Amino acid sequence: MDAQEKHKIKSQKMKEKVDARVAQAQIEKGLLLVITGNGKGKSTSGFGTVVRCVGHGYKAAVVQFIKGKWESGERNLLEQYGVPFAVMGTGFTWNTQDRAGDIEAATRVWQQAKAFLADPQYHLVLLDELTYMLGYDYLDKEEVLSALKNRPENQSVIVTGRGAIRELRDMADTVSEIKEEKHAFKAGIKARKGVDW
Ligand code: ATP
Ligand code: MG
């Protein structure tokens, strides 16, 4: 048997396996995705999925739990396509040094998140940097988990941020841990507009 024939048989076997797995996946429901870890690419993954969703004509909503002081390329674009943004807007928590103020801001934006999570017209809700609100106990864990659990059946949710808590990982359908191998910032290169935000 020559190499070409061997390759053909191998590919055929692989195709049969993949087809069988595809046939097995029969469940239709909204997903909970958690994108966590220390590497770069968590929020960009979330926003990439929002673009997919909107590109198919579905409605999506974005809630950002940390950033907001500066301009965001994603917001500039997506608001033009009717994607509502709810932004905490207090900058990075470790800059504010104001725990009570942070909790108040987190609670305020959480009310908007809760409204999206109760509204079946949203095919996708991105909860960007939500993990920190749970890690720092800025929001009530049970309340957040229950809002996620009781969301409309066909609604998908993406949670991003480092250090996702165990309960969130357990509840999720898909969890990706983005590993940092290297990051430009560590070599002294400044964050770039149009790439980092
Ligand atoms: P991005 O928004 O680029 O997908 P991210 O959501 O994975 O990043 P965050 O922790 O939210 O990561 O980072 C926000 C900002 O910090 C971004 O400008 C990003 O480029 C930068 N950043 C991400 N990961 C690292 C890292 N490991 N070291 C230094 N800076 C980072
Ligand atoms: Mg991020």
TrEMBL record:
Single GO MF annotation: corrinoid adenosyltransferase activity
EC number per UniProt: 2.5.1.17
Compartments in which it is found: Cytoplasm
Catalytic activity: 2 cob(II)alamin + reduced [electron-transfer flavoprotein] + 2 ATP = 2 adenosylcob(III)alamin + 2 triphosphate + oxidized [electron-transfer flavoprotein] + 3 H(+); 2 cob(II)yrinate a,c diamide + reduced [electron-transfer flavoprotein] + 2 ATP = 2 adenosylcob(III)yrinate a,c-diamide + 2 triphosphate + oxidized [electron-transfer flavoprotein] + 3 H(+)
Highest taxon in the source lineage: Bacteria
UniProt cross-references to InterPro entries, sorted A to Z: CblAdoTrfase_CobA, P-loop_NTPase
Pathway: Cofactor biosynthesis; adenosylcobalamin biosynthesis; adenosylcobalamin from cob(II)yrinate a,c-diamide: step 2/7
Keywords noted in UniProt: ATP-binding, Cobalamin biosynthesis, Cytoplasm, Nucleotide-binding, Porphyrin biosynthesis, Transferase
Root EC class: transferase
Alphabetical list of Pfam families matching this protein: CobA_CobO_BtuR
Record PANTHER family: CORRINOID ADENOSYLTRANSFERASE
Functional description taken from the UniProt entry: Required for both de novo synthesis of the corrin ring for the assimilation of exogenous corrinoids. Participates in the adenosylation of a variety of incomplete and complete corrinoids.
Homology family: Belongs to the Cob(I)alamin adenosyltransferase family.
This protein's name: Corrinoid adenosyltransferase
Higher taxonomy: Bacteria, Pseudomonadati, Pseudomonadota, Gammaproteobacteria, Oceanospirillales
